[in-house]
Amino acid sequence: MPALTSADVVAINSSEEIVGQIVEISKQIPELAFFAASPVSKTTYKTLVRTALPSAGFRDINSGRSRSAGTIAARSVECKFLDASWDADNAALTGVDWGDPVAELQQAHLLAALKELQSQIWNGTDNDANGFTGANSLFTSASGDGVIDAGGSTASTGSSVYLVKSGTQDACLAWGNDGQITAGEVTEQQLYDNSSNPYMGKAQAVEGYAGLQITNHKSIVRIANITEDSGKGLTDDLLYDAISLFGENYGVAPDGMFMSYRSRKQLRSSRTATNATGAPAPTPTEVEGIPIYATLGITNTEDLLT
Q1: Where does the pLDDT of residue 155 fall: very low under 50, low under 70, confident under 90, or very high at 90 and above?
Q2: pLDDT tens digits for 234-284?
Q3: Would you place residue 218 in the very low, low, confident or very high pLDDT band (cuts 50, 70, 90)?
Q4: Largest alpha-carbon pair distance within the chain?
Q5: Cα 178 versus chain centre, distance
Q6: DSSP assignment of the chain
Q7: CA quadruple 174, 116, 227, 287: dihedral positive or negative?
Q8: Can you give the pTM of this predicted structure?
Q9: Staple partner for 132: which of 69, 80, 155, 157, CB 3.0–4.6 Å?
Q10: pLDDT band with cut points at 50, 70 and 90 for residue 104
C-alpha cells in the first residue's frame, strides 16, 4: 500500500477547499509530496524505536543458540501549532473587480505557513523556536554519526544536503488532531491599526498541528559545511560518500536528497560536459537513481558544524 501524503492525511477531516489548496501548494513545496505523512490523534505522543536488532543465525541440529531480543526505546514526538489565520480591511476586500479576495488571502496565508513548515523540517528551532524539532538536531558535530563534512569554513555561506528514507518507520510528517487543518468561518469584526485606531474588516482562523517524526535516526544522513569557499561546494564525490554512509548505517538506499538551489548549481558546475556539442552539463535531477530535490527550506547561511 502506498504511503499517505500530507494531502491524503489532511483530506481525512479537512474541508474540500483546504485539501485542494494543499494539493496545489505541494507543487511548490517538494517536502509535502515526498515525506510520508501520518495522522495522529494527539499533539504529543511517543513512538517506539528499535535501537538494536535481535540476534539470529544458523545452528547445528540438536544444538541450541543463544538469543537476544535486541533493544527498543520510546521517543517523544511533538506536533506544534501551525497558524495561517488572516484578517483584512473591508475596504481592501471590496475594492477589487476580479477574483475572490477571501480565497486569495486564505491560500496566501496557508502557503506562507507551509513554507515555514518546510524550513522547520530541516532547521527546527533554529528556524522558529516555537516550532518542532528538525532534522538538524540529529547532528551535533562535523565528525558525528551520519555526517559527511564538506570542509567549508565561511559561516555566512554554510549549507547542507540531507539524504532521507521516507516512511512511518523512518522519517515522516505527523499531523496532529487526526490531520485536521481547520478553516473557521469568515467573520466581520473590528480591527485596529498600529495606532489603535479602529476599522471594520474580516478575519478567519486557519490552523492545525504538524511535526516531524524520525522513528529511525539512521534514516537521515547529512552533508554539512557546504560553502562558497573554493573547492568546498557540493560535488558528486560528496554525494557518493553520503550514499555509501547511508548504506553502511541503514543497509538501504535513501529515497531522496534535499539541497538548496545553490548546492544544486554547485553540483552542476562541478561536472564536465562530455557531449559532442560542448553544451553545458544539464541540471542534476538524480544520482544513482536517487532523486534530487532543490528546496527553499535549506538555507545558504547555516551555522557550521564543528
Answers
A1: confident
A2: 999 999 999 999 999 999 999 999 999 999 999 999 987 766 677 778 899
A3: very high
A4: 88
A5: 19
A6: -PPPPHHHHHHTTS-HHHHHHHHHHTTT-HHHHHSEEEE-SSSEEEEEEEEEPPP-----TT--------EEEEEEEE-EEEE--EEEEHHHHHS-SSS-HHHHHHHHHHHHHHHHHHHHHHHGGGT-TTS---GGGG--STTSTTEEE-----GGGBEEEEEE-BSTTSEEEEEHHHH-EEE---EEEEEE-TT--EEEEEEE-EEEEEEEEES-GGGEEEEEEE-SSTT-S--HHHHHHHHHHHHHHHSS--SEEEE-HHHHHHHHHHSPP-STT-PPPPPP-EETTEEEEE-TTS-S-BPPP-
A7: positive
A8: 0.88
A9: 80
A10: confident
What's the CA gap between 306 and 147, in Å, rounded? 11
Dist. CA 132–CA 127, nearest whole Å: 10
Mean pLDDT of 28-35: 92
Closest CA to 228 of 280, 304, 138: 304
Q: Which sign does the torsion angle of CA 164, 258, 34, 181 carry?
A: positive
Q: Which three cell numbers stand for residue 297?
A: 527550506
Whole-angstrom distance, CA of residue 155 vs CA of residue 225: 8
Q: What is the rounded CA–CA span in Å between residue 131 and residue 133?
A: 7
Residue 186, C-alpha cell as written in the block: 469568515
Grid cell 535516526 — which residue? 217
Q: Do 295 and 264 touch, CB atoms closer than 8 A?
A: no
Which one, of 237, 227, 292, lies nearest residue 259 by Cα? 292
- pLDDT score of 131 more than 70: yes
**Strand 198-204 relative to strand 86-89, pairing:** antiparallel
CA–CA distance, 227 with 160 (Å, rounded to integer): 9
Nearest to 287 by CA among 304, 262, 264: 264
Give the three cell numbers for residue 47: 513512538
